[in-house]
Fold each of these.
Amino acid sequence: MKKGIFLKTGILLTSIFLFGNVQESEACTRVVYKGTNNSNVITARSMDWKDEIDANLWVFPRGMQRNGSVGANSITWSSKYGSVITSAWDIATTDGINEKGLVANILWLVETEYAHFNPSGNKKGITISAWAQYVLDNFATVDEAVKDLKKEEFVVVSDYIPGTQKFATLHLSISDASGDSAIFEYIDGKLVIHHSGAYNVMTNSPIFNEQLAINEYWAGVAGTEFLPGTNRAPDRFRRAGYYIKAIPQDTDTKTAIASVFSVIRNCSVPFGITSEKEPNISSTRWRSVSDQKNLLYFFETVKTPNTFWVDLKKIDFSEKGKVKRLSVSKNETYAGETSALFKESKPFVFLGI
């Protein structure tokens, strides 16, 4: 047997050993691309879920009065920045970009354990459904968000997803127009923050510390020789990490966006995929790509033929601006730039307790 076959077999067996005990969860992938000298900064994510997840796009202006939706002890704030976001069932913000180019993405993390919230205690609370929106409303950069959130002035409060027995366990990633990045996880009731521009890839399980260890292992394996190809989170993590560096580090924005789309599609789960042994491997439902230098938010769903986008520079985010909604939950088809197609709407109410 040739040496190369021994090497590839060893890699495969090691991969099975490393990844075989990972508990699967609802699957998503997030990746950040930085062109030469940060000429382009683009964040992409896939939303993977085993059931239909109604998504709509929303425009939120500055000056919106918010609260944490966890009762009398809720945190309150007024939005400092306007944003374009994607909702889940019009009860939560799962993804979005604000007018300063800060992007927030919520992903599933089964290992999550939030701190205890006392509704009559001294610390305020915020529903998990508004966590990403709080960041988009209040911060222009990753550094600002990290400095504020590490103070832990409020507790993130979660609950069961309506109509299910699934308790929402999520982690949050953010990136900004400079290419900086941070990941927030609650492990054993404590907030863990990973802050570095090098943290440009995130998937679901395992926790991010272990994802970094997996990445260190794979760094010694040539991506041109072997890449893991399953739908499991660690495999998607490796593919995204390899391809986001392998694609052209181009200063041309159109080329960069097309390249990033190709990476997030490569890390998506084919529509209709099911597994009796791993029932929580989930089909990709939609994908977003955020151009943080040019303030463009691209979106596509698996049931429509077109990719469309929103140019944030064409939106009135002033306090006189209107809350607007673009429906995609009924598989509507759009083409090109769609900011003029949003319809004025009452803001959705964040699901709380």
Note: The CA atoms of residues 24 and 280 lie 6 Å apart.
Amino acid sequence: MKTNLLPLAKEGLSYFIYSLASVVLFLFLDFDLLAFFTSLITLFIAYSFRNPERELKLFEPTSFLSPVDGIIQSIEELQSDKYAYKIVIQSSLSDVSVLRSPANASVSKVLKKNGTRVSVNSKLFRSLNENTEISFITQEKNIFKLIHRLGKSFAPLVIELYEGQKLVQTARYGLMLNGQTSIYLPQNFRVNINVGSEVKASESLIGYFS
């Protein structure tokens, strides 16, 4: 995702401009009630696509930060040769939607799947919803994987990554407005977070590679 220092994520600019233009039009036509409701929608769009700067706290070079804003829904130990832990973060419409790199790493695979946008509470959520699977490898050869799965949303899941791309920790790479993120981590990872904790992308520590 190209560096964007605007207070609004570029994916939301078209929504914001069209909504603001509607407010101006309704005011010009003296449709005050419609102008009022459209103003509320415009404020909602600006809030949903806000793009705040985040202060990078001083952690060890092997630190792993949250890639999204949300709540830790579960931490699961896996019986797998490749990944030992699965951490699920639930993001809502009130969370900042910008996705950020959790570590200094290179992208090894990007697999996007189109789908529906049913509620996260639906039994069909995991099998049918739009999602993107991204695999990474760090300079120390630590591997991890992220799966961003979109929930009910008026905006699509945006991932601006390609295989071989190198990311620095905290770099913006996409946007997900309401959804669920699954993090798969290897055996040599030390989890430093609890279920129910509120996390923020680029600021909250998930753990360390040992």
Note: The radius of gyration is 18 Å.
